[in-house]
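Objective 1b. Sequence-to-structure analysis of Endolytic peptidoglycan transglycosylase RlpA.
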Amino acid sequence: MPIKPGPEIDLAGARPGRAAFGRGGAVLLGLLLTACGQLPHQPVHNAPLTPSASGASSQYPDAVPRVEPRSRLGNPPYYVVNGRRYVVLDSAKGFYERGIASWYGPDFHGKSASSGERYDMYAMTAAHKTLPLPSYVRVTNLENGRSAVVRVNDRGPFVGNRVIDLSFAAATRLGIVQQGTAPVEVVAIEPAEAGAVIANAGPRAVAGKPRFYLQTGAFSQRENAERMRRRLLLAQLGPVDIRSEPNGFQTVHKVWIGPFDDVSALDMASAKLEDLGIHDSRPTID
């Protein structure tokens, strides 16, 4: 997606709790960010579970999608964290992705979210790097079939290969509090679809154990994909495959490493890719 012109502001270097964004040459100061923009969210494995947060679906009902204005805060055309640029989507319509979810809880409870709201670990919310704030998505745990509708009102996660950071309530619904992470599917929900989506909110059948891969590049020319494949084979990170897919009037050649047995193995491979200078790998779940 093209980047709009404007000064590049590094959020990671901003004063805690605040940042500046460029918008068409102007600078918007005082944007409230959660610690996800300053201190990247870490998966929480040992947060205390109280009787009021025991994990029953009735305890934490789905967020109900409704038409809302775009948040005044947290929606710049783009922003930079730790040297990486993220482009905020104009709309959530049609959004779909698979990847690794984590969750954040007590350490951030009550602190400012990127939208300017207060983070409530007992609300059905989530942080995402590029979806407009607010947005609504259905998140499905691909290991157990459990799903939940959450309201995206924060930015993050900026650690590892995570695609979405869930509130404690949402993580409880999906059954990932103890393990800290899980492979998930994220699908945007339009407010007009909310009734049908929530009516079909029961667990779905799991088609087998998810297989984890890392995509290290997508190339329009096959020889560039082959060059990347040879480089990865020399690094001995695991099986390397090129998957060619039509994309409009051209074919895109994607380079995948894997499969990996679990999230830990995927994270180890991702760290090795960073050491090799390959910084844009992303998790793919098959």
